[in-house]
């Protein structure tokens, strides 16, 4: 009978750690082989410092993609509606219901397409511009109304943020077939394909039915910052919530496993501030 000694357990533990690290490094190596599946040139608007939690475990720096969902217009006479989340058509394309009782199976593996500075961002910008126009027109009718004055200021600030601070990266489509999604969006410098899961949730209730909506959770949106760029980006990356006026551009590549990594960084000069109407000077 073989008697195990304490050092045997220690050696087994070390061997397990080394094996785990080797598997992880092999995955990273494979992901970065060949031409990236897509490559996006992002900025401080689309990248945020990852949340460290109450305690920071190490001196490393991790950032994450900051993307938004397009807002959908509400159907006429629909009193039970949420403009955020996946649309009815997107849920149906995944084989998920968009109304009725909440399904028991509320998560589904899926693919999503992220769009950088494209039609979805232009639509969001136009919505902010129209909102400012409407609030300005109402204020002209009642120029002394304090509430309308506050609404115009909020709309002006929102437009300024939309033009110069808010993320231009939008989730524009979801599907079960990665190849079909890529065929619909072939530009690999503007569209990035990511893996994840769709979560279905109950967004609205009425006396007759309930509306379901959905959200996409990427399997990997965290990006480790290599040591060579750590100090530079530590001073410029916006916090988990909030904006930063220190601009930079970062090339994010998505590899064979559709996992993102930081492949280049460029620091740029501070951009001009916006005027009071939200337009760049």
| pLDDT < 50 runs, ≥5 residues | 23-27, 74-79, 273-281
| Total of helices | 6
End-to-end Cα distance:
82 Å
Shape: globular
Strand content: 25-35%
Structural classification: alpha+beta
Number of strands: 10
Please give the order of strands in the largest beta sheet.
Answer: 5-4-6-7
Q: SSE order in H/E notation?
A: HEEEHEHHEHEEEHEE
Descriptive report:
By secondary structure, the chain is an alpha+beta fold. It contains 6 helices and 10 strands; from the N terminus they run H-E-E-E-H-E-H-H-E-H-E-E-E-H-E-E. It has helices spanning 6-31, 88-93, 119-141, 146-164, 178-184, 227-234, and strands at residues 38-43, 47-49, 62-65, 107-116, 169-175, 191-205, 210-218, 222-224, 248-254, 260-267. The protein has a 4-stranded antiparallel beta sheet. A 3-stranded antiparallel beta sheet has the order 1-9-10, with helices on one face. Helix 3 (119-141) runs antiparallel to helix 4 (146-164). The chain is globular and about 75 Å long.
């Amino acid at each position: 009978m073989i008697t195990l000694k304490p050092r045997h357990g220690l050696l087994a533990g070390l061997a397990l750690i080394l094996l785990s690290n080797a598997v992880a490094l092999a995955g990273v190596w494979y992901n970065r082989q060949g031409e990236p599946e897509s490559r996006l040139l992002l900025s401080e608007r689309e990248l945020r410092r990852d949340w460290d939690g109450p305690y920071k475990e190490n001196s490393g720096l991790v950032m994450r993609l900051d993307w938004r969902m397009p807002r959908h217009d509400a159907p006429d006479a629909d009193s039970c509606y949420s403009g955020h989340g996946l649309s009815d058509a997107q849920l149906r394309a995944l084989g998920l219901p968009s109304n009725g009782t909440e399904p028991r199976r509320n998560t589904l593996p899926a693919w999503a397409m992220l769009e950088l500075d494209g039609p979805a961002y232009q639509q969001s910008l136009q919505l902010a511009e129209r909102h400012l126009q409407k609030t300005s027109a109402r204020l002209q009718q009642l120029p002394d109304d304090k509430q309308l004055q506050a609404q115009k200021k909020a709309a002006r600030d929102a437009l300024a943020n939309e033009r110069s601070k808010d993320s231009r990266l939008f989730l524009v489509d979801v599907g079960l077939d990665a190849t079909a999604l890529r065929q619909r969006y072939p530009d690999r410098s503007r569209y990035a394909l990511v893996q994840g899961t769709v979560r279905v949730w109950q967004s609205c209730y009425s006396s007759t039915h309930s509306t379901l909506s959905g959200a996409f959770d990427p399997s990997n949106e965290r990006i480790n910052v290599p040591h060579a760029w750590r100090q530079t980006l530590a001073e410029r990356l916006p916090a988990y919530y909030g904006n930063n006026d220190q601009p930079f551009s970062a090339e994010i590549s998505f590899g064979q496993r559709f996992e993102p990594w930081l492949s280049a960084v460029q620091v740029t000069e501070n951009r001009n501030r916006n005027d009071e109407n939200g337009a760049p000077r």
